[in-house]
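so my prof wants the structure for this chain in the tokens format not the other one, which i didnt know existed until like an hour ago. anyway here's the sequence
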Amino acid sequence: MISGNTLSRSMAILALCLCASLAIAADPAPTPPAPPLSEREYELLKLFADALDQIERNHAEPVDRRQLIEAAVRGMVGKLDPYSAFVAPDEMEKFRRGVESEFGGLGVQVAIEEGQFIVSYPLVGTPAFRAGLAPGDAILKINGQETKGRSLDEASALLKGPIGSPAKLVVRHKAGGKEDEVVLNREVIRLETAIGNHRGADDNWEFFIDAERKIGYIRLTSFSRHTAEELQAALSVLQKRGLKGLVLDLRFNPGGLVSAAVEVSDLFLEKGRIVSTEGRSAKPRVWEAKSPGSFAGFPLAVLVNRYSASASEIVAAALQDNARATLIGERTYGKGSVQSIIELEEGKSALKLTTSYYHRPSGQKIHRRPGEPEEGEWGVRPDAGFEVKLTDVESTALIRWRRERDEQSSRNPANADAPAAPDDKQLEKALDFIRGKLGEKPQPPGP
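here's what i got, hopefully its the right format
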């Protein structure tokens, strides 16, 4: 039985819950006005308030209300779907960096060997790269603090800081063993998302995979707010050099921003629907292609596999349904739900909430709901006659080799012990398709 004081306290907590609900409903997300609470809904909110009150007052150990509320929110969101989530205040910075593919720092990836920070890869064009840091160099001190014995998280925290702030490093170079003191100013580090087949001697990406036949190759690693801009720049370079055909590689791409997927699709389409969304409460939306700025007039092959998801599937479906590209590889993952970012607590925390689903231009859905059978209509399939499956072993070998290849530069040349190039049957199929469109018989891919 609940006493009068406990009931009053529970009602006060309930009032706070109702106020929070109103604040969320007032957010400019596509949410209809909330109907008045029914007696049943009122009782459920009262249950929550009573439980919170009893835990705070009577648990054997002191409890933190913030932690309890966050746990309750995570529990609610966890009942929805795998893609909805609560982003706590201490997670917001990392969440934003993940969406935008940007972060502040020096542009160096580090590993720990025998307790010491070791440079594994300086990102091309960053402060670390310009300062001459190379793979294998040991970072002994950061702003006077010894690094030996620290964790990777501690290393990351020491390397990051306000944009423009200096970081003084004591570095022991792998080549020769000389120690240097290097002062670097932190910058916004933007991860490249549109990359080529390999880096040239000038450390810029080479986007021709078959220079003799003028066949380009561009791989999109994710969809950030700069992806379309990067892709447009690469296409412009290729076009100036006489582009005749292109392979767009979306394999292993987990997706990203819907807006980036629309922009990327629009670069290849002069007209037609790109994607639409429908949800229970969200207003339906439709995106159409616009002719200006489109790259057309050449055959296009798009590589997809079972790890191509979300924004990758939007692009693949748009280009397939509008007959702009031929899809080669494997059926995609089937992640076609839209997550809206709803800020809470005046932007200190957020809900990533599934509010609608993608529909490809044909009207078919992309999303695979839990329990939906393999033979169901979901994801994006390769065109007829162009399905090329890789085994798990082959896929793993391809990922490892690509990672080694992506990190090669003048500062980080090919490792003699690196694995040999795997047999990429999907890429070979795409190149044979493009060469066939150019009037040539299938041949092995170029270097």
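also thought this was worth mentioning. The mean pLDDT is 85.
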